[in-house]
Specification:
The complex is a heterodimer.
Chain A: E1 3-14, E2 21-32, E3 36-41, H1 47-54, E4 62-67, E5 70-71, H2 77-87, E6 88-92, H3 103-112, H4 118-132, H5 147-159, E7 165-169, H6 177-192, E8 198-201, H7 205-208, E9 213-218, E10 221-227, H8 233-247
Parallel strand pairs in A: 3-8, 3-9, 6-7, 7-8
Antiparallel strand pairs in A: 1-2, 1-4, 4-5, 9-10
Chain B: H1 2-16, H2 18-35, H3 54-85, H4 87-95, H5 100-141, H6 153-180, H7 183-187, H8 200-225, H9 237-271, H10 273-276, H11 281-294, H12 296-330, E1 335-339, H13 356-364, E2 369-379, E3 400-403, H14 404-413, E4 425-430, H15 436-445, E5 449-451, E6 457-466, E7 480-484, H16 486-489, E8 493-503, H17 509-526, H18 528-538, E9 548-553, H19 554-597, H20 599-607, H21 612-649, H22 651-656, H23 659-696, H24 701-711
Parallel strand pairs in B: 3-7, 4-6
Antiparallel strand pairs in B: 1-8, 1-9, 2-3, 2-8, 4-7, 5-6
Helix pairs in contact in B: 1-5, 2-3, 2-5, 2-6, 2-19, 3-6, 3-19, 5-6, 8-9, 8-21, 9-11, 9-12, 9-21, 11-21, 12-19, 12-21, 12-23, 13-17, 19-23, 20-23, 21-23
The chains are: A alpha/beta, B alpha+beta.
C-alpha cells in the first residue's frame, strides 16, 4: 500500500526559553492508503496538537510531516488553504457545521470551495447522502437534526471530495452510544467501501476498536502501537483496554 | 473576588461595546451642548432690548427633552442585548451558586457605571461644544459675536439626572429580567434565527405587502405632484396633509415588510444553484438570510429611524431657510397692520380707517414714524361683495384693486423705484412665491382688458405683472391684486385699509406687545359699531381675529422668526444626528457581536481550506449588505418623502432657499451623514477584521524558528 502520511521526528513546544512546555516530543510514524488509524492517549498527551500540526492549522517546532510526498511544514502560508481543501477532510467532536446552511449546503460547501462545477454538485451531494443515510434531512438546518445525523453530515462533507486523509478529532465525543455506533459504522464503511484513509483521535476504547491500528501517546511521545490484524473487534477492544491499563495515568473511556 | 470580576467585566464591556460607549459620549455631548442654550447660567444669551430668547429657549428645552426620550429606547435595547450576549456567562455564575440577586446587582452596577462614565466624558465635550452652539445662535442675532465658553451647573445636573434616569430604568428592567430568568433558559439560550423556521408563504405575503405599500407611495406622490398645484407651485395645506399622511403610512408599513421581502429574494437566490454553488457564496447567502430573517424588526426600526434622520437633516434646515427667506419678503416695513372686511355683513359698514392714531401711539412710546402709507383696496365689481353666509367656501372672496399712488408709496418705502401707469391701464401685482413666468403667459394669452361696473374699460399695461416683495398684507387671502389709476379707484367701493410704516429707530422688542394692545384698543374705541354688530356673531368662527389683526412689528418678527428658524435648524441637526447615530450603533453592534458569534464559522471555513482572503471578502460583503441595506432603503424612502415636501411647498423651496441656504440645507447634512456613516462603519469593520484575524491567525513561521533556536540555545 502507498504511504500517505509520514511524520519524521516532529516536535512541538509552547512558551519561551524560561517556561517551555513540550506538547510533542519527537514523534515519527507513517500511515498507508486505506488505513484506519486511531490515536489514543490521556489528556495533554499531545493527540490534538499532533492532529493540528498534520492538518496545517498549527505549525511544528521541528521535524517534517509528509502528506503524499509533500512536506506540509515547508508549505507557504498562502498555499496552506489550498493544500487543506485538496488533500484533507475533517470530522470534529462538535460537528463544526454551519448553522446558517442546510445539511445539503453544508456538504456542498466542501465541493464549492474546491471549484467543482455547479452542475455536478447536487448529484454528488445526493449520492453521498444516500451512502450515509441522511437523504431525508438534506433540506434541514443543523439545529433541526440529531447529533448523530449532524456528525454523519460532517462525515459526508469530509469525504465528498475524496481527500487523501480524513482527520477525525473525537468524532463520537458529543454522541450517545447508539449514535456513536452508527457513526463508527459509517466511518468504517467509508474506510472499507470508499477506501478513505482515516486518522482518528479518541479517548474512547470502543471507538478506537473500529480502527485497524492504534498509536498510544504519552507525554508527547508514542508509547506503543497495536494492530487489529485478524482479530475480531471484541478481541481488539480487549487488547486496547489492556494497553490502556498498562499506559496508566489520565482518564479514559472504556465503554 | 467580586470586585475583580466587576473590574474585569467593565474592562471587557469597554472593549466589546466601545461603539456603544462612543455613541453615549456623542449623545450626551450633544444633549449637554443643546441644553446649555436653555441654562439660566448662560449669560452669553442674556439678550437685549431688541431680542427675547424666552420662546427660543423653551422650544429648545422641550424639543431636546422630547427627542432625547429615544435614548431610553437605545439604552434599554443595548443593555438587553448585552444581557442576552452574556447569558452563558451568567449561567456559569448560577451553576457555581451565585445568587441571581448578586448577578443582577453586578450587571446593573456594570452597565450603570459604564454609561455614566460615557456621560461624564460627554459633559466635558459638551461644555466645549456648547461654546460653538451658543456662538452659532448668537451670530444669528449679533453677527459680530465671538466664541466664548461658559460653565452650566444646571445643565450638568439635568444631563446627569436624565441619563442616570435612563440607565436606572433600563437597569431596573434588566434586574427584573435576571430575577425571573431560569437557569435552564440561560443554558439553552437560542442562538439560531427564528427566520429559518418560517414558511415560504409568510415571506410571500409580506413581500406582496411591501410591493403594495411602495407602489402606493409612488402612486400617491404621482397624483400629489400632478393635478393639485396652484400658481405658486405649492399645494394647499389640507390636500398636502392628506397625500403626505397616506404616503408616510404606506412607507412605514412598507418598511416593516421590506426585510421579509429581502429574505424572500435571498431564498430565491439560494435556489439558483449556479451562483450559489460558487466558492463560498452559499455561506454568504446563508448568513445574510439568517441575519435578515431573524433581525427583520431591528432592521425595519433602524431603516425607519434613519429615514427620520435623513428627512430631519434636510427638511428642518429647508423649513428654516423658507421661514427666514419668507421673513424678508413678508416684513419689508417696521410696522404692518392688516385689515379685513370678511366678517362685515353690510358693505356700508366697511370703515374708512384713519391710521393717524397709530402714529400717535408710537410717538407716545418715543418711536418716530419716518414714512407711512394707508393702503386702500377696492372692490373691482361691487356686486361681488359677499358675506360669511353667502360665500361658497372660506376663500370665496371678490377681486380687489389698489391705488397706484399707494402702490408706489409702498414700493418707495420698501426701497424700490415707483412704476408708471396710464389713466386707462391696469396691471397685476403678484405674490412673490408664484411662478411669474406661467402667470405672465396666462395673463398675456387671456383677455387683456377689464370692464368695470360703470362701463370703464381698462387695458392691461405693457408691463402686465409685477412681483417685487412688498409684503403679503396687500393680498386678501389671494395670490394677486390689481393696481388701478387713482382716478378709477375714486369711483370704487372701499374694501379694506392696511397700514405700513417705517420708523426712525426700531420698535423695542419689549414694547411690541404693549403697542399692539394699545392700537387694538384704540381701534375698538374708534370703530365700536363693528364690534357691537359683528363680534358676538362671529367670534366663534375659527378664522375670526378681530377687524384689525394681525398687527406686526419688524423687531418682533425678526426675533421670533429668526430664532424659530435657528431652533428648527438646530433641532433638525440634533434629531438627525441622534436618530442616525442610534441606528448606526445598533447596526455596528450587531456586526461586531456577530463577528464574535461567527468566529467558529470562520475557523471551520479556514480548516476546510477556504482562503483567508475569500473569508475576508465574504465578511466584507456581509457587513456591507447588513450595514448599507437599511441605509440604502432609508435613503430612497427619505428621498420620496423629501420630494413630497418639495411638491407641497412648490416654488417656495427654491425661492427662499438662497445658494448658501441650499448648501446649508443639503451639503452640510450630507457631509455629516457621510462622516457618521464612515465613522461607524469603519469602527465596526475594524473590529470585525480584528476578530477575524485573531480567529484565523496561525502560529507564525517566525515563532517556529524561535522555538527551534531556543531549544538549541541560540536565543
Amino acid at each position: 500500500m502507498k504511504e500517505i502520511l509520514r511524520l519524521e521526528h516532529i516536535q512541538k513546544y509552547y512558551g519561551d526559553q524560561g517556561n517551555l512546555t513540550k506538547a510533542i516530543d519527537d514523534i515519527s510514524f507513517s500511515v498507508h492508503a486505506g488505513e484506519f488509524v486511531g490515536i489514543m492517549g490521556a489528556s495533554g498527551s499531545g493527540k490534538t496538537t499532533m492532529l493540528n500540526c498534520i492538518s496545517t492549522i498549527d505549525t511544528v517546532s521541528a521535524g517534517h510531516i509528509f502528506l503524499d510526498g509533500t512536506d506540509v511544514t515547508e508549505l507557504k502560508e498562502k498555499d496552506l488553504a489550498r493544500f487543506r481543501r485538496e488533500n484533507l477532510g475533517f470530522v470534529f467532536q462538535d460537528f463544526h457545521l454551519l448553522d446558517t446552511l442546510t445539511v445539503s449546503e453544508n456538504i456542498a460547501l466542501a465541493l464549492t470551495i474546491n471549484q467543482v462545477p455547479a452542475a455536478q454538485i447536487d448529484g454528488k451531494v445526493r449520492e453521498m447522502a444516500e451512502t450515509l443515510g441522511i437523504t431525508d434531512i438534506l433540506e434541514k438546518y443543523p439545529y433541526q437534526v440529531s447529533g448523530g445525523q449532524k456528525q454523519r453530515c460532517a462525515c459526508a462533507r469530509a469525504i465528498i471530495n475524496r481527500p487523501k486523509l480524513i482527520l477525525a478529532d473525537e468524532p463520537t465525543g458529543a454522541l450517545d452510544s447508539h449514535s456513536s455506533q452508527m457513526l463508527l459504522g459509517t466511518m468504517q464503511s467509508m474506510n472499507e467501501q470508499l477506501g478513505a484513509t482515516i486518522l482518528m483521535v479518541t479517548h474512547d476504547a470502543f471507538s478506537a476498536s473500529y480502527a485497524n491500528r492504534i498509536l498510544f501517546l504519552r507525554d508527547g511521545m508514542i508509547f506503543t502501537e497495536i494492530r487489529k490484524g485478524s482479530d475480531s473487534q471484541n478481541v481488539f477492544f480487549e487488547k486496547i483496554l489492556d494497553t490502556l491499563t498498562m499506559l496508566g495515568g489520565g482518564q479514559m473511556d472504556v465503554c | 473576588m467580586y470586585a475583580k470580576l466587576f473590574r474585569t467585566n467593565i474592562r471587557k464591556a469597554l472593549q466589546d461595546y466601545v461603539i456603544y460607549f462612543f455613541t453615549l459620549v456623542i449623545s450626551s455631548t450633544l444633549f449637554f451642548a443643546f441644553l446649555s442654550l436653555t441654562s439660566r447660567y448662560n449669560d452669553i444669551l442674556g439678550g437685549n432690548g431688541n431680542y427675547s430668547l424666552t420662546l427660543f429657549q423653551d422650544t429648545i428645552l422641550y424639543a431636546v427633552l422630547a427627542i432625547s426620550v429615544i435614548f431610553l429606547a437605545l439604552i434599554r435595547y443595548i443593555s438587553s442585548y448585552m444581557l442576552k450576549q452574556r447569558s452563558r456567562e451568567f449561567s456559569v455564575y448560577m451553576i457555581l451558586g451565585m445568587e441571581q440577586r448578586t448577578i443582577a446587582k453586578h450587571f446593573f452596577g456594570e452597565t450603570f457605571l459604564f454609561g455614566m462614565a460615557a456621560v461624564a466624558a460627554g459633559c466635558v465635550f459638551g461644555t466645549l461644544l456648547s461654546g460653538i452652539v451658543t456662538t452659532f445662535v448668537l451670530r444669528t442675532i449679533t453677527p459680530t459675536a465671538t466664541f466664548r465658553l461658559g460653565f452650566y451647573p444646571d445643565t450638568l445636573l439635568i444631563t446627569g439626572l436624565f441619563f442616570g434616569g435612563c440607565f436606572l430604568l433600563a437597569g431596573l428592567w434588566n434586574v427584573r429580567r435576571i430575577y425571573k430568568i431560569k437557569l435552564m433558559d440561560l443554558l439553552n439560550e437560542k442562538r439560531t434565527g427564528e427566520g429559518q423556521n418560517r414558511k415560504m408563504r409568510y415571506y410571500i405575503v409580506f413581500s406582496l405587502i411591501a410591493v403594495l405599500c411602495f407602489g402606493m407611495v409612488g402612486v400617491v406622490l404621482y397624483r400629489f405632484a400632478n393635478g393639485n398645484s396652484i400658481y405658486a407651485g405649492s399645494i394647499p395645506e389640507e390636500i398636502s396633509n392628506r397625500y403626505q399622511a397616506a404616503a408616510i403610512v404606506a412607507a412605514i408599513v412598507g418598511i416593516f415588510s421590506l426585510y421579509h421581502a429581502a429574505a424572500l429574494i435571498l431564498i430565491v437566490i439560494r435556489r439558483r444553484k449556479k451562483w450559489k454553488n460558487r466558492n463560498i457564496n452559499s455561506v454568504l447567502l446563508g448568513n445574510l438570510f439568517h441575519k435578515v430573517s431573524s433581525t427583520a424588526k431591528v432592521l425595519s426600526i433602524s431603516t425607519l429611524a434613519i429615514t427620520i434622520a435623513l428627512v430631519a437633516f434636510v427638511i428642518f434646515p429647508m423649513l428654516a431657510e423658507i421661514t427666514t427667506g419668507y421673513l424678508d419678503y413678508r416684513m419689508p416695513y417696521d410696522v404692518m397692520i392688516y385689515n379685513t372686511y370678511m366678517y362685515i355683513d353690510e358693505i356700508d359698514d366697511i370703515p374708512q380707517i384713519d391710521f393717524s392714531f397709530v402714529r400717535e401711539i408710537l410717538q407716545e412710546h418715543d418711536v418716530v414714524v419716518s414714512e407711512e402709507v394707508s393702503q386702500r383696496s377696492y372692490f373691482v365689481w361691487e356686486r361681488d361683495f359677499n358675506t360669511v353666509d353667502t360665500r361658497e367656501y372660506w376663500r370665496d372672496l371678490p377681486r380687489l384693486a389698489m391705488r397706484i399712488s399707494d402702490y408706489n408709496a409702498m414700493r418707495s418705502m420698501a426701497g424700490r423705484e415707483p412704476v408708471p401707469l396710464e389713466e386707462n391701464e391696469f396691471f397685476l401685482h403678484l405674490d412673490y412665491e408664484m411662478d411669474l413666468e406661467s402667470v405672465a403667459d396666462s395673463v398675456g394669452s387671456g383677455n387683456r382688458s377689464i370692464q368695470l361696473d360703470d362701463g370703464t374699460i381698462l387695458k392691461l399695461a405693457d408691463t402686465a405683472v409685477y412681483q417685487d416683495p412688498l409684503g403679503t398684507y396687500l393680498f386678501h387671502h389671494e395670490d394677486s391684486i390689481l393696481v388701478f389709476p387713482d382716478s378709477v379707484c375714486d369711483h370704487l367701493h372701499l374694501a379694506r385699509t392696511c397700514y405700513y410704516a417705517n420708523t426712525e429707530t426700531a420698535v423695542p422688542y419689549r414694547l411690541c406687545d404693549t403697542i399692539r394692545n394699545e392700537i387694538a384698543a384704540s381701534f375698538r374705541s374708534r370703530y365700536p359699531y363693528l364690534f357691537e354688530r359683528y363680534e358676538a356673531k362671529y367670534q366663534a368662527d375659527r378664522h375670526y381675529n378681530s377687524f384689525l389683526d394681525p398687527i406686526r412689528f419688524r423687531t418682533q418678527e425678526n426675533n421670533d422668526v429668526t430664532l424659530t428658524a435657528t431652533s428648527v435648524r438646530l433641532l433638525g441637526i440634533y434629531s438627525g444626528i441622534i436618530f442616525f447615530i442610534l441606528c448606526m450603533t445598533v447596526l455596528a453592534l450587531h456586526l461586531t457581536t456577530d463577528s464574535l458569534d461567527q468566529q467558529t464559522q470562520y475557523r471551520i471555513l479556514y480548516q476546510l481550506g477556504v482562503e483567508r482572503k475569500d473569508i475576508a471578502r465574504m465578511v466584507n460583503r456581509q457587513c456591507l449588505c447588513y450595514f448599507f441595506l437599511p441605509c440604502l432603503a432609508a435613503f430612497v424612502i427619505a428621498l420620496l418623502l423629501i420630494d413630497s415636501f418639495v411638491i407641497r411647498y412648490g416654488h417656495k423651496v427654491f425661492t427662499y432657499m438662497g445658494s448658501i441656504g441650499f448648501q446649508f440645507g443639503v451639503w452640510i447634512p450630507g457631509i455629516l451623514i457621510l462622516v457618521i456613516l464612515a465613522g461607524y462603519y469603519g469602527a465596526a469593520i475594524y473590529t470585525v477584521k480584528r476578530k477575524l484575524n485573531q480567529t484565523l491567525h496561525p502560529i507564525s513561521r517566525q515563532k517556529k524558528y524561535l522555538h527551534i533556536f531556543s531549544i538549541n540555545g541560540i536565543v
